[in-house]
């Protein structure tokens, strides 16, 4: 009996390893303006009215800022408005997750004013009883309780101080 246990334990360990979720870091791929296609493994943040929103980032005042793209323009929330960029990068990864208030594994997409890390977030936009779905944007925190998610929406920057999710490089652990 002891010999059978010795055979099963290594096999069990191999099965656990094989079944563990695979993770890959987020990589950024520059948009090719000559093609309208979205890169393989582009990270989907949400869908609204038949439009898929992917995570993007664009250079603004010397720093990268994350935002939302349906594929051709990257809309970055900044100073109350949605700024549009034709030159931008798509966030890509074959495996990713979204979790609320989990900063330790959150994806950093850039910096604001060289001072604050900008994380990739998404928030569900509801206006006039219409659910526009999840829209990606940028989040930052100044201290343990001061954090916000800003998303571009219909030319504006919307501010969410709760009820948003952060893009993760790894799956959630208990």
Descriptive notes:
The strands form 3 sheets. Strands 8, 9, 10, 11, 12, 13 and 14 form a 7-stranded antiparallel beta sheet that branches. Strands 1, 2, 3, 4 and 7 form a 5-stranded antiparallel beta sheet that branches. Strands 5-6 form a two-stranded antiparallel sheet. It has one domain (23-168). Residues 1-22 have low confidence and may be disordered. Helices cover 10% and strands 52% of the residues. 31% of the residues are buried. It contains 1 helix and 14 strands, in the order αββββββββββββββ. The protein has one helix at residues 2-19, and strands at 27-30, 44-48, 51-60, 63-69, 74-78, 81-85, 89-92, 97-100, 108-112, 116-127, 130-141, 147-153, 156-160, 164-168. It is mostly beta strands and 174 residues long.
Structure summary:
The chain is mainly β. It has one helix at 2-19; strands at residues 27-30, 44-48, 51-60, 63-69, 74-78, 81-85, 89-92, 97-100, 108-112, 116-127, 130-141, 147-153, 156-160, 164-168.
Annotation keywords:
174 residues, mainly beta, 7-stranded antiparallel sheet, 5-stranded antiparallel sheet, 1 helix, 14 strands, globular, disordered N terminus
């Amino acid at each position: 009996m002891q010999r059978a246990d010795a055979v099963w334990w290594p096999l069990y360990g191999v099965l656990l390893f094989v079944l563990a979720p695979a993770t890959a870091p987020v990589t950024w791929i520059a948009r090719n303006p000559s093609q309208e296609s979205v890169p393989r493994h582009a990270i989907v943040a949400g869908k609204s009215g038949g439009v898929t929103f992917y995570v993007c980032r664009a250079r603004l005042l010397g720093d990268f800022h994350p935002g939302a793209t349906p594929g051709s323009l990257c809309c970055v929330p900044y100073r109350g408005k949605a700024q549009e960029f034709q030159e931008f990068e798509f966030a890509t990864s074959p495996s990713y997750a979204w979790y609320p208030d989990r900063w330790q594994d959150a994806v950093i997409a850039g910096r604001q004013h060289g001072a604050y890390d900008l994380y990739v977030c998404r928030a569900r936009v509801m206006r006039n009883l219409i659910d526009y779905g999840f829209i990606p944007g940028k989040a930052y925190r100044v201290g343990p309780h001061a954090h916000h998610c800003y998303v571009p929406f219909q030319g504006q920057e919307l501010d969410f101080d709760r009820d948003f999710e952060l893009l993760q490089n790894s799956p959630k652990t208990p």
